[in-house]
Predict the 3D structure of the following.
Amino acid sequence: MKIPFLDLGAAYRELKPNIDDAIRRVLDSGWYILGPEVEAFEEEWAAFCGAGHAVGLANGLDALTLALRALGIGADDEVIVPSNTYIATWLAVSAVGARPVPVEPDPTTHNIDPDLIEAAMTAKTRAILPVHLYGQPADLDPILSIARKHKLAVIEDAAQAHCAEYKGKRVGAHGDVVCWSFYPGKNLGALGDGGAITTNRADIADRIRLLRNYGSREKYVNEIQGTNSRLDPIQAAVLRVKLNYLEDWTDRRRTIAGMYQEGLADTGLILPHVPNWAAPAWHLYVVRTQDRDVLQTELATSGVGTLIHYPIPPHMQKAYEGLSIDADTLPLASTLATEVISLPIGPQMSQQSAGHVVGTLRNLR
Ligand SMILES: *Cc1c(COP(=O)(O)O)cnc(C)c1O
């Protein structure tokens, strides 16, 4: 039995007639930039997230970058970011000319540790950028209260957290802006690049709408120096189809995660810790072990595909050598990179396959 880490084609095959119809509808409409399909998706996505506004963008990195720009964050500013994240979180901060200031994760959840944030703040700190990594919501309440106390903005990187819940409420409108990616492999994935922000703040939604479209509300009238970062209507149409299945598909992920949590409990692997206030979206199911590389090879030999999220943390990337961050100052992020391994999970993965992964791991340990 061969089990791929993720079968992207399977999601398309499950919904092929609906997706093909949606794409054809856009092709026939003659409307290929923004327009009704993007507006409809924005309304539906905002409603799903319990947010007042959604703005469709070209990708998740742009969502983060434009959120920072909309808040006026730029040169000489500092933004608190997790040390344990995908590099896009940091790149957005750098892209606006600000400095990413890393904070270590909570050792049990691997998400930013709110207790360490205030020590990392300086007079230049303007925002906190928590990431709901692997689809596990970050502990937002303490983060929001630190932000209120110090008058900082909160920008959430929810690129992995579609449908995740924090204290019974969906991620999507806790902070000032919430940033989404619809990269094909995400829990709500397009058939190409896509992104969005959601927010309850009309001023921010309006600003990002301007920024994504050359700073223009009215054709050839430019209020600010914007950019081009528009969600493609074909992708919006595809996302509208898939959005109808997101809750169901998240439930399927939760079933597989539940099988792993139970079946792997006594294997010596460190399993994801789920605080009682969290309902994760299980974008990734990440376990920890010191013999990670050996385990990955053994699993591959047994036909089980795995990936490492992420093998090199941002502070150890060549791209960030200019910040001169000593790996010893971020020991947990540095260690996680050598110990984490992501097991196969996805809405089209069968329970039989998940059972096979459990059985294989139990045999190996
Ligand atoms: C995927 C991802 C992004 C970037 O999204 P793109 O659409 O690929 O630009 C940002 N942050 C995190 C945590 C991600 O997983």
Q: What stands out?
A: The first strand starts at residue 53 and ends at 57. The first helix runs from residue 8 to 29.
